[in-house]
Amino acid sequence: MKKGQIAGQPIIFIFITIVIVILLFFGIKVILNSRDLANNVNIETFFLDIEEQIQETYNLDFGSRVSLKKISVPSSLKEICFMNLDGTLTGVTDDKELKLNAAKTNGNNVIIIPSEGVYKNKKAENFRVSINPLCENLNDGELDLVLESMGSYVEVKKV
Predict the structure, then answer these.
(1) Which contacts of 101-105 are long-range, i.e. CB under 8 A and separated by 24 or more positions?
(2) Which secondary structure element, helix H or strand E, spans residue 129, and what is its range?
(3) Measured between alpha carbons, how far is 90 from 147 in angstroms, rounded to an integer?
(4) 122 CB-near residues (< 8 Å, 6+ apart)
(5) pTM of the predicted model, to two decimals?
(6) Reading across the β-sheet that carries 110-114, which strands appear in turn?
(7) Tens digits of residue pLDDT in 91-150
(8) What confidence tens digit (pLDDT) does each residue in 25-58 have?
(9) Which residues, in sequence order, are bridge partners of residue 77?
(10) For an engineered disulfide with 126, which of 13, 58, 80, 141 has Cβ 3.0 to 4.6 Å away?
């Protein structure tokens, strides 16, 4: 080996090390982003399943009841709240009331609360709740709610 080649080897090793570190960094970032994307897809599917059940119940005869227990609940969720947009909120903490009121202002009436991260606000049609808001704890992995057709709307109730 020539003297110039020996002097250049450390530079090549440093360059290779930098390239490997950059590849690892971006690889880990892609993996974490794909996990977040999968979680968001699960939450969106969960909401769409609920919305579909509300619409199906709305089309049933007056007094028909449908349980939401069969809907798969993502493990990343802590709570879901349903609320009437035209009513006042009762029995909630100040922090939660601020977030629920912000959702109401935007016309959203379903709030999905993850274990960690940002609340997801959604809008569903043709339902009402008698307790405003009606919040269901999802830590047990089950949605213990019933939908009842009231003719012109669907009422969401606790089991």
Answers:
(1) none
(2) strand 127-129
(3) 21
(4) 47, 51, 108, 109, 110, 111, 112
(5) 0.79
(6) 120-122, 110-114, 77-82, 134-137
(7) 887 777 788 888 888 889 999 989 888 888 999 999 999 988 899 999 999 999 999 999
(8) 999 999 988 888 888 899 999 999 999 999 999 9
(9) 114
(10) 58
